[in-house]
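Subject: two folds for Thursday's group meeting

Dear M.,

Sorry for the delay on this. The cluster queue was jammed most of the week, so I only got both jobs back this morning. I'm pasting them in the order they finished. Each block is the input sequence followed by the predicted structure tokens. Could you check whether the formatting survives your parser before we put anything on slides? The first protein is the one we discussed after the seminar.
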Amino acid sequence: MRRRELMAGTAALLAMPVQVLRAQPADEGSWPRSAQVPGGIARVSLGPAAERPKAFAENDIPLLVLGDAIEWTALVGIPLSAVPGERRIELRSTSGARRTLGYPVAPKKYSEQHLKVSPRTVDLSPADQARYERERDHLAGVMATFSEAGALPPSLQMQVPVPGRRSSSFGLRRVFNGQSRNPHSGMDIAAGTGTPVRAPLPGRVIDTGDYFFNGNTVWLDHGGGLLSMYCHLSATEVRAGDLLRTGETLGAVGATGRVTGPHLHWSVMLNRAMVDPALFIAAA
């Protein structure tokens, strides 16, 4: 940072109310780990400002901004479909000024699995296809949820929602009968039916439902565009609008939806991009 910018930032800091200094979370050690690859998270420095600036990814998607008046940082979820190279975000100040900032995305090769299965498990019937499309449109609205980041907990390090073996890796691409499917967008954890599934962070329930692929599902909003999803549940114990604390039960492991056995599918979404949940686990 240039000396003039540092002096200006210090002057603004001394002139502002004390409470601005307590924007949460300000400890970078409590943030998810950075991994600037498809399916990862980039940390983009926004510099000093008296108030939390607003930053946006492509298609005007708002970003999670953390830190304090000395240094603000945008945490950017990188889509699994991202092409390696430079990507850009837009910073908008309270005065209306705009500027763009770039960050690099490195390539990452995820595993691929080729499977031969019955055609009926790959090709949907017209009725199932229509149901899937209805659910897809509804879930697009759920995934667009963005609540202000001011209520975020002091730490974004998540507890694993259920104990068990990780049975499928994030980013794994499956090819059924020669037909490639979207990469695996979450973490699968093998556990017995009925095992309690607990909230990894405080959050508000924003959706529950029984979906064709995902079965019984719960979505949580943690603030600032950080969402999490829990699929294939045998039971759901919450309703939309419920507020959960870390460790509170939201449902139980099951095998609902299109699955071959009981497990939890856990996804984490940041600015509408599915990212690797392992980046949020302290000991992962």
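Second protein, same layout:
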Amino acid sequence: MSYDADLFGRIRINRSAVERRAASIGTRRSIKKDYQAAWLLRAVSCIDLTTLSGDDTPGNVRRLCQKARRPVRGDLLQALGVADLNITTGAVCVYHNLIETAVKELEGSSIPVAAVSTGFPAGQIPLQLKLAQVRESVAAGASEIDIVISRALVLTGDWKSLYDEVRAYREACGEAHLKTILATGELATLSNVAKASWVCMMGGADFIKTSTGKESVNATLPYSLVMVRAIRDYLELTGFRIGYKPAGGISKAKDALNYMILMKEELGKQWLTSSLFRFGASSLLGDIERQLEHHVTGSYSAQYRHPAG
């Protein structure tokens, strides 16, 4: 949509109220037994299984892709009665140089490959290089692009330039989905987080995402509440559904359940699908698999028995 500062310019976020609401999410209700297992299986289908390390190799990306195809052990799925559901993760997320490896390994599946782009994680390179990187990743086979916004534009209140930047990324992505990473821990205030969410959605983002996972503070429930409320308001204004992706620091099944409760309470059941909700995670899947094994057997296994890839 066209840039309109009047839609977000007067936003002011009450931090204490946000923190009180966020603190209530994990305490007002609990999900147990078969219901918890069902929610955790849904969480698996919403994971962007990620490897973004300097020592990534084609070998570990291929293993990650095989884990994405079969994220939960077959015997556990059989015991849960869901072996016929063909559960996979929502996507595999890698650096640009490993896109072609991931695409080839996932051939024949419906699992998309996501690539981080635009000078991830800091984004401190010229705009033309960022746009070239997006186009190269799409050409290499990535169907989802996770871009990082220029935090300085938020911190200086240059919202129009941020809008223009996101619009340029939207055009460069073509048919690929655009996920905009706000790096919430570096935006100073919750009001900035809300305004940046609005600008990214106005500029054409399919998803808004909390973090790169490389900041000192990554996804939190207060940040998520602010972003999800922005999505809800945007839906009411435009009729467009924007996806949400918390990323960084989400490693426990209990945390995943809290984020899913947030999504259901604030946006409704339809947001609990991979088309509108993703976790950016690498170790979360292992803990979910451990919890599912406990549900089946009554015992916890060692973490090393559930490798990410």
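Two things I noticed about the second structure. The first strand starts at residue 47 and ends at 50. Residues 22 and 222 are 5 Å apart (CA to CA).

Cheers,
T.
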